[in-house]
Write a structure and sequence with these properties.
The complex is a heterodimer of chains A (408) and B (167). Chain A is mostly helical. Helix content of chain A is 48%, strand content 11%. Chain A is built from 17 helices and 6 strands. In chain A, a hairpin with a 2-residue loop joins strand 4 and strand 5. The two termini of chain A are 39 Å apart. The model of chain A has no long low-confidence stretch (mean pLDDT 91). In chain B, the strands form 2 sheets. Chain B has a 5-stranded mixed beta sheet. In chain B, strand 1 and strand 2 form a beta hairpin. The radius of gyration of chain B is 19 Å and the shape is elongated. Classes of the chains: A mainly alpha (408), B alpha/beta (167). Chains A and B meet through helix 1, helix 8, strand 4, strand 5 and strand 6 of A and strand 3 and helix 3 of B.
Chain lengths: 408, 167
Amino acid sequence: MPEQANIVLPEGSIEKQTTRLNLGPTHPATHGVFQNILEMDGERIIKTESTVGYIHRAFEKIAERRPLYQITTLTDRLNYCSAPLNNMGWHMTCEKLLSVKTPKRVDYLRVIIMELSRISDHLICNSIVGVDAGAYTGFLYVMQYRELIYEIYEEVCGSRLTTNMGRIGGFERNFSNTAFQKIEQFLEEFPKVWKEFENLFMRNRIFIERTKGTGAISAERALNFSFTGPNLRAAGIDYDVRVHAPYSSYEDFDFIIPVGTTGDNYDRFMVRGEEVWQSLDIIRQAYQKVQSFKGAEAEVYHADAPEYYLPAKADVYTKMEALIYHFKIVMGETEIPAGEIYHSIEGANGELGFYLISDGGRTPYRLHFRRPCFIYYQAYEEIVRGTMLSDAIITLSSLNLIAGEMDA
Amino acid sequence: MPIHSDHIKEKLNAQFGDGIISWDASSDILALEVVPSINLKVLTFLYDEPTLGFQFLTDLTGVHYPDQPGKEIGVVYHLHNLKENARLRMKIFVPIEKPDVFTASGLFSGANWMERETFDFYGIHFIGHPNLKRVLNVDEMDYHPLRKEYPLEDQTRIDKDDEMFGR
């Protein structure tokens, strides 16, 4: 029987049947449209076949017709748990192609937003690992701080989930006082909550026994599978784009890259947990740097790039150049220089890359997104082979697979 | 101590000679184009040679240039040496009638799905791939949608009667 092809039974043993189980496409434990066809011997997984789920949205094709600004809204929908990170990554890619230099204050403001979204992403991931291990409380408890982060987004750009935040060269407007107050409130209140959350799990016997030693991947295999981000660092490789290829003035900040040793679910949980502390520290440093600007410098929130940055509305009504630029940008008539670039940022899940080929037209000739989740997910089969079904579910959530980042 | 691009050029030119078609240092990452039939040999050499050590495959994707006869379909590899923090971009071009390329999935496990995705969108046939089938689109699809001959729908068309999304 083909179902038994993967089991080698000793001679003379009673005939054994494997079960085929469909986990997903919409299963409460898969947190997204993932289908896994599991072949199981009792509760043990012998083989899995993963499908991404047919939610393909053809972003790369659509991007070939859109001017740069209209692509920002596509990047929102990649990893929707940390949309501003994708937005900033995309704008920095454009700036690299267009040779736009951003002022320091813009870089620091971006760092604040990027680290906030990293926190909100890790917050979801770690608390969902808790949920899948049977602890729902932590998830609901930290949600109020994701809400506060979303309120900060709202204050900065006006929307919450799919943010479309920022512009080429900076932000659409300066941060309001309320935004700074909310950031201060977050820095003040969140550490206590995160500490409490960690206390719930870090030394919790049940949690440790559920996560330690399960879903492990060695450093060699993780590298060979092109892992990046927290999942690679949990296996012990200290690769972080923020350090290897600093962007947005990350070289001005002092922070630690936490690494694990075994690459199992517990290490992934711990690495993400520590990254939240480091992000908090970075936000604190960036906030101080932003506050230290004086006079006219303290009002800078975008680069001087009139061809790509929308002019102020008052100027559009009174100045000819501003009117022309306004029309050219809104209608997407600005031709972008020919070139070929790859820019990557440290997304919440790993190296989020943008490979952009421009032939000098108004839209990219080819745009490819390097989505870390898509690349992780192929290792799932190898990671869960031979483990129990309940461990496989924790592994799925601790890898932090986001459906939006699977396809593009 | 980053690897100098001259060193990479020297090593590869010495090893492959005419197999290396061109070098391009004008963009952000040092790029080279090689003869498609030796792509795997070059990747393996870059991986194994201790002074190069490009052992991390960052990205693999396809690109279509309909105006280059005989070289319409391209495959772009982004490689990374994490220890020395050096990046390299390698390209190969194959004709659209016979887009056959050797798979890199034996060298990099991560190339498996990246190649499936490239096959899905560009129809590049990766010789030796363990499971070359579509990954994002349905299996029944009979075309490769990211090729340039499939234009996006005209946004101004009015002949379409679409009750659900009415335009």
